[in-house]
Amino acid sequence: MSEGIITSPTGVAARCSYLAAETDIRKDLNQLPPTDLWGNRLDIAYQLAVLTNAVSVPHEFGKAAMNAADNQVKTIRGNSNLGIVIYTIGYSGGSEAPDETWMKRISDDPSSTYYDITQTAGLYVKAPTTDQLMAPFNRVASEILRLAM
User: Fold this and answer.
1) How does pLDDT run across 12-39, given as a tens digit for each residue?
2) Fewer CB within 10 Å, N- or C-terminus of the chain?
3) Distance between the two ends of the chain, CA-based, in angstroms?
4) Of 83, 98, 129, which closes a domain?
């Protein structure tokens, strides 16, 4: 296997303890690396207070992924040459509600407690039900058109 290339071995499902029981995830992977493939920290960012490098439940992978995304978004928004604006829509009508604090944070929405005035402000729009999804999409489209003019 080449460095940096992730492959899946044949028959992995037959040897995966996680498939039998979620709490057995530590038998498959007992520790998270400090960074992802692109150098984004997995243990320092949004979920700092609750993430440890020890993997004991699948939810910790989600926390690590949020940390990696949070760190990457900060890098992207921090590059003023890119002119990136991030819009997020949180659909809360499904089985899992979105983490609105995080979505506001990554979009640098002015209503966020993490709002950074030195970076380009984005927008978070909530969509409580499928019937209410059109309004957030229209709002984002309106913002994009406003910026394009």
Assistant:
1) 555 677 677 777 777 777 677 788 888 8
2) C
3) 49
4) 83
Q: DSSP assignment, residue 85?
A: -
Nearest to 33 by CA among 61, 74, 73: 61
Say if 3 falls within a structural domain. no
DSSP label of 89: E
pTM assigned to the model: 0.71
The overall longest dimension of the chain from CA atoms, in Å, is 55
The whole-angstrom separation of Cα 129 and Cα 49 is 31
Segment 64-108, tens digit of pLDDT: 888 889 989 988 988 888 889 999 999 988 788 889 999 999 999
> 4: phi > 0 → left, psi -120 to 50 → alpha, else beta; which?
left
Q: Which residues form the domain of 89?
A: 85-149
